[in-house]
Each structure stands twice: as C-alpha cells, then as structure tokens.
Amino acid sequence: MKFTDSLIYYEILVLLIVFSIVEFITGVFKSGKWTKNEWHITVAGLLMSSVITRPVSFIFSTFILQYFFKDYANYFESTPFWLGLIIVTVLEDFTQYWWHRAAHTYEWLWKGHRVHHSAPEMSVFLSGRNSWVYLLIFPSRIVSATLIFLGFGQAFLVGYFLKILIGIAAHSPFAWDKPLYKIKWLHPIMWVVERVISTPATHHAHHAAHDKDGIGVINGNYGNMFFIWDVLFGTAHITRQFPEQYGLEDYYEEPWYVQLGYPIFKAKDQRSEMSR
User: Fold this and answer.
1) For residues 73 and 14, what is the distance between their CA atoms, to the nearest angstrom?
2) Nearest-CA neighbor of 206 among 165, 251, 238?
3) How big, in percent rounded to 5, are the helix, strand and coil portions of the chain?
4) For residue 36, what is the enclosing H or E element?
5) What is the rounded CA–CA span in Å between residue 161 and residue 178?
6) pLDDT, tens digit, for every residue of 79-136?
7) Looking at the whole model, is its pTM more than 0.85?
8) Domain chopping of the chain, boundaries
9) Tens digits of per-residue pLDDT, 17-45?
C-alpha cells in the first residue's frame, strides 16, 4: 500500500470539520478574542503546514532517500502490521517530543514555535499554527518519510491517523476527559490513560498563559501523541485541572506574516521578542 494511494488527508479533514463544528456549538470563536489578525494566522498557518511545508519536506526527504539509499526501498515491507505500527508511532512521536521540547529551550526555535502558543483560546486549528522555520525542518516529518520509504506505509497511515486524532482532541476546547475524572470506578483507568497519551487536561496546561496558579506548565507536557515521554523524562505535570487563561503574557499580537514568517519578517514593536 502506497502512502500516495491513501485517503488520509480527507480523513483528517473530516476530523477537523467535526471538531470545528463542536467548537462552534460550544461557543469558541464567539468570545471576541479571535481578532482578524488571529484568523489570518490560523488560516495561513494551516495552509502553509498542509499545502507547502509538509509536501516539500516529504518530497525532498524521499528524493534524498531514493537517490542515496534506493536499495533499501520497502526493505521492511514484510514486517507484521502490529510491529510496524509500534515502530512507526514510537519513533515518529519520540522525535516530535524532543523537537517540541527543544522549541521551548532554544530561543531561535522558540520564535518559530511561539505562534502556536499565541492563540487566545484552545482550538483544533492550533495544529497548523507554527512558523515556516519550525515546520520546514520538522524532524518527525523526515522520520515519517523514511519509515514510508522503508516499507512501513500501511502502518504509518493508521499510526498517523491515531496521532492526529489524539492531537486534535487534546487541542480542542471540548475536554472529553473532564467528565471521566468524576467517575470513581474510572479513576484507575484514567490514571493510566493520562500518563500514556496526551489529554485535554495535560495539553491545555501546556498552553496556559502562565504557571502561577500551579495548573499551567509552559515548559513541560510536551508530548503530542504519547504523554509517556513526559513521564519518563521528568517534564510531566498532571493536575486534572484547566487553566483560566491561554496564550502568552508578553503578547503584542504581532502581524500574522511576522509570526509565521520570522525571521524574514520582524515586528516593528520593539517590546516584542519578534523584533530582534
């Protein structure tokens, strides 16, 4: 099964539409926090991520692999599906954990990821809010292209769909985990779930505007699909509570082209870190 034969992008589009409808019904986008500039960032970010940087990254990576390692094309095609699924999800998400963590560690990379955190509210649309620098050299995309090249295409499709599903659900303001914490007999199950995958509670805390309330954890909870990485590497913060304020405290709502196009474009407001 070839990656190009898949309907994966249509399936992801359906996910986005369904969650977006839920967000609209529950009142997101009606709060007045979404300015015209924020919508420009969100729409342009999604287009850049899905139409430009992702295809470019995959095409370039595949070209390099075909040119230098053509003898290894589909080398692991006979690997059992279940084993391939484990290999794909673990390697791809493990790479993203460290890339995401690096984005909160190194200033130059943070400025490329900062736009992901500048949104005033949680939304499934945040998945595309990253600058061109952050997206174009996204290591997990290179890993993904390599895994597909090596013959893990079918396993990748399923794993990628599950990853997107978990990621979208974790970014959505529709907190599916919140009512489950209140059911006593589910406590042991939820204890495991919130330590294995990213949930709204743990990921919303990562998008908090500050950590003064003990709920937010700006430098932690980096996991995208698997939260287990945070548990293993000491960056987990679990409270089962949701922050009252999202976004950035030092946000000057830089123009959309600055947030997505830095360092090609820089902010004129000298108070902004995007001006340097």
Assistant:
1) 31
2) 238
3) 60, 0, 35
4) helix 36-47
5) 23
6) 999 999 999 999 999 999 999 999 999 999 999 999 999 998 998 888 878 999 898 8
7) yes
8) 3-249
9) 777 777 777 777 777 788 899 999 988 98
